[in-house]
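Fold these two proteins, one after the other.
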Amino acid sequence: MKNNYTLLDISLYFLKLGTIGFGGPVALVGFMYRDLVEQKQWISDEEYKEGLALAQLAPGPLAAQLAIYLGYVHYGVLGASLVGFAFVIPSFLMVLVLGFTYQKFGGLPWMQSVFYGISAGVIGIIAFSSYKLVNKSIGNDRILWGIFIVSALATIVTESENVLLFLGAGTLYWFVKAPPKFTQLNIFVPVLLQIPALTAENTVLWKIFLFFSKAGAFVFGSGLAIVPFLYSGVVKEYGWLNEQQFLDSVAVAMITPGPVVITVGFIGYLVAGFKGAGVAALATFLPCYLLTILPAPYFKKYGKRPAIKAFVDGVTASAIGAIAGAVVILGKKSLIDIPTALIAVVVVLLLWKSNKITEPIIIVGCAIVGIFLKNYFIF
């Protein structure tokens, strides 16, 4: 596709998305497709699929990796770096402010009411985004539908995302659509970044760097997948936060725009102030940045070959299935009663019927509804 935008254009787009993009990874990848592929036509459908496949195969937060890849498409490492920074910095600054407020006033009791409405609205947003991704990427191909269904069910049952499933789906579709010769079986599989458990420098910042580097290097798919890993380390192993503080940190991630994994900044702030927040965020995003830009040239160079294209299509179908499965998992945890279910349904209908109602407006409306319901009704 012809390059019809500047580096400033795409950097400002991701700065805006990082500032007002609510709904978590599922919604964010949907917004990128809608805005950059369908509306602006800066990125081709094929380039988007390549980026989504690479983001799903490599460890780290899905939305941030896809953003980095899309920045790389026409502007290389500089584009990837500026886009990645622009996408993450707004929500990072927000969690710093919330972390300061949290420590100063001893918690965020108001958040329960706000989160009650927002969490339901977020489910509606990501459900609609998932529907659009399925509609655009799967089409009428029965094999891709089969891959999609298996991946969705596996995600729902295990409540996790398995990279081997994505690799298997890509390999299966590759063998069906472009059967290889056994002398040409060359699939590039990203190598996980190994972070040694060194403890020579027994400082809090060093421990934060090591722990969050591992979190960024070994957690696949949705930023929400990092939550169990963080809980085991932050609460159980190191005792940096108590149960309530950890739950509040997850809530902060959900009510702020941008990548959900930015909760690491909030946690880092509570543990060691501004330095802790900076180290935690850097350590978490550095592995996903490196594991996106290093294989990116191979995806750009060889992505149009029939074998690679078939592999990418299979991985993409599996990735979208995992995203759809994540919608079900999150829905079970967020739609806890009739009012929250109704909020989600209304949000889906609004997005379906109107292109003029934006996600930030929906989030604000859901927050107001949540406060009203929590203060005037008992659920």
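Now the second one:
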Amino acid sequence: MKRTFLSLILLVSVFAVHAKTLVVYYSYTNNVHNIVTELTKQIDADVVRIELAEKGLDYAANNYAIGSALISAIRNSPNDAASYPAIDPVNVNLADYDCIIIGAPLWWSNMAAPLQTYLLHNGAAMAGKKIGLIVSSASSGISGVEGDAKRLIPEGDFFNPSLWIRSSQTSGATSMISQWLNTIRYDEVAKVENVPADQNIGKFTIFSVSGAMVAKDALSMKDLEKGVYIVNGKKICIN
């Protein structure tokens, strides 16, 4: 989505633009699907559902033995792309999005394997973006899923806390989602600050809107060309 950023007479003034959000999720039992349906009633977002390339498998058979084997393969060789299951192609340009919310089922204390595959191939393109994590599980804690997300998106700017919705709570997820959005101040994440290039910004890594690192440990933006950058999770317009 193309956006026009206006040059203001007062360079230190601040104006807001709504961020474009992408929701990426995987769902076998449809718990996460139902959660995402409720989420998109409360926020404006594009949605991508991840699907495994191999069809017709009964993941519930033998106490979800297939899923267990997929997670074991990743645990044994997390840096080997061959350890991750193949998924259907996803045609989405992550550069178009400021915020990405991940809807993840918990499989044996880890993020569902198909979603890990997507993040393995796309996590680097999420650098500098706001990342939200919603996890569905029957009972176990979600720290393993959070660890997977941060391993696969090492330069992501994660919302804190993540949202944990137990399977038994899915039908009542509306209020939990609303409370979470308020807690992470979702409505404030889309602010774009219009600032002079020589303004001291502290010591931050600067990313382009496409997620590429353009400066590390920068103290100001005076050497950058005019344009829009992501600094500390915020969009900054250099005028």
